[in-house]
Amino acid sequence: MTLRVIPGGRGAAATSGLLVTGAAAIATLAGGLRRGATQDEVGLLDASVVGGPDAPTAPVVAAWDGRIVAAGRRDAVEASLEAAGLPLARFARIDAGGGLVTPGLVDPHTHLLFAGSREGELRLRQQGASYLEILEAGGGILATVAATRAASVEALLEHGRRWLDAMLALGTTTVEAKSGYGLDLPTELRLLEVAHQLGTEGPVDVVPTYLGAHAVGPEFRARPDGAEAYVKHLLEVQLPGVAAQGRARFCDVFCERGVFDADQSRRILQAAQAYGLEPRLHADELVPSGGAELAAELGAWSADHLGAPSPEGIDALATAASGERPTVAILLPSTSWFLLKRRHAPARTLIERGVPVALGTDFNPGTSPTPSLPLVMTLAVLELGMTPAEALAAVTVNAAHALGLAEDAGSLETGRWADLVIWRVPSVDQIPYWPGADLVRAVVKRGRIVVDRV
Ligand code: IZC
Ligand code: ZN
Known about the structure:
8-stranded parallel beta sheet; disordered N terminus; binds zinc ion
């Protein structure tokens, strides 16, 4: 059995149909954003109750022109396709081989683009150094900034392709990618342009986010008013440049004690909103910093990390959760794990309070060098106390909502992109159960088979 990641981009999108048959079950994730008790509902179509994967009533998914056109009982789907003027003869078939079928996974928080690596920091942490101490000493984000500024566009593209391929082979079909390793306008623009280009190349969709406020830039750090001077530079130079370039959809800020405080984060995100860049935040990753409160106040698309939110911050997210478009809590357990933390995000409290929870890899060279959402699901189950079904909803429908892609990604419903994973295991519970294993049988992106291990 060989792994094939099949190249090809948007232009090669399917012009006819694909029918996925032979599934043990299909987790459709239909029905919209999950919160509270519904976080645990995956919309399962189960073949075992209708006579097995090859029964005429077994569940199938049909795609046409890159979008889902039907999901349900095979006999009913086939009849509806014919009735809609889509002859079955125009559908290629793919056999799920008794595996589970889910939507393509959505990774809503990555720092995809960087140069270099930071394995030395792991040793420093084992010896007792903290994340912020390493940053203050000129390591951490600043080390990656130096390497990234020196990297060519070609090198960044090559790096991006390498890791997007790795993510795709693990089931991820849509990725958010932050800038933030430039901290000057030319490099931030270069990172956003590369992210955009990678998405255009496909097959993985890439959503670029501007994160100029990832750390105070090296040119400003020696000054007594360094943080304020850098915020002024962000507002007067970087933001107008990023807005004029037009690649970023979102603006993110690392709101954390010792990085940007809540007041600075508010000013940056409000200025970004005025340019049409929508807010999301690194909130309370390490200590309570007012990040969750600010995310709720601004109606941010997401509050990310939440390793140490205040009780008031949780209250604010819970209040926002009853509104029309709640702020999604994007939890990143591979980061707290890699930072040797014993304390993780309060996933159970958030779910019980009705806050929609998503999960991401936080892929980055310092605190989470893993491209694997299935591994993150395992950590969510083992360390955050989430159920496998809650974790699956967190990397599909809720992650898509957190990126403003609810109409396109995250569920197997009519009209969504035909992005799906065929797993080599038959149940949702088995995805987090096999940590680090090779569980993907095939991946379909916009109706095309792009990974095929059959
Ligand atoms: O490079 O350290 N937390 N940003 C905020 C990171 C982690 C990435 C890094
Ligand atoms: Zn991050």
